[in-house]
Amino acid sequence: MSSSPKSATPGRVGTAGSDSGGAASAKDAATAADSGYHHKGAHTGEDLVELLIDRLVDYKANVHRADGDPSATIAELIGDHSSVVVPRGLDESWVEGFSGEVRVDAPGEELTVDELDGQGAVVTASAVAIAQTGTIVLDSSPACGRRAITLVPDHHVCIVRVDDIVDIVPEGIARLDAHAPLTFISGPSATSDIELSRVEGVHGPRTLDVIILNG
């Protein structure tokens, strides 16, 4: 029994879509393989760290170095605040030197926007840092926390491990979970109006302190 043109149409569309999709996928894969773009950067070791620092400073972030234990540096940076927020997965020893109140933001115990607005600072870890673009990426993991805690407080202290520094963007992307809520940070929040007057702190923290952690 022959089918009507109307009933056959969905099948034809599905077949055509499948065929073109397969061809497109194969073509895309071949193009990516032959593109010649860099998958790995040339900077390594201290040169890599210094490149990241140079970019961060250019973006008006404050950069600090620490060996093994960053708690003393963190305590100094947040010492003027009466209360700070940290994600539940942050190493507790990192804020032991802080004499004020430490609020822990955790699933089921999330701080409200008003509560976050009342915090002097937020302290988080990071997932990866890309040296050439001066970009730090948070991946919403337990040590990085949910996005809101790094957007509302006016001061963000972010710890970047040397082992998590890569040279170029493809290296950074390769380390990330594409399905995770990702936050890309390139310096403190800043924007400008039509007259090019710089305004800081509109879309996030006005102050960004980055601690480069060895070990």
Structural notes for this entry:
With 215 residues, the protein is of the alpha/beta class. It has a single domain (45-214), classed as NagB/RpiA/CoA transferase-like (Rossmann fold). 29% of the residues lie in helices and 25% in strands. The protein is built from five helices and twelve strands. The chain has helices at 5-34, 45-58, 71-78, 113-117, 169-174; strands at 62-67, 83-87, 101-105, 121-124, 128-130, 135-138, 155-161, 165-166, 183-185, 190-192, 198-200, 207-214. It has a six-stranded parallel beta sheet, with helices on both faces. A four-stranded mixed beta sheet has the order 8-5-6-9. The longest helix is centred in the first third of the chain and has 30 residues, at 5-34. The radius of gyration is 23 Å and the shape is globular. It starts with a helix and ends with a strand. Mean pLDDT is 85; it is low at 12-25.
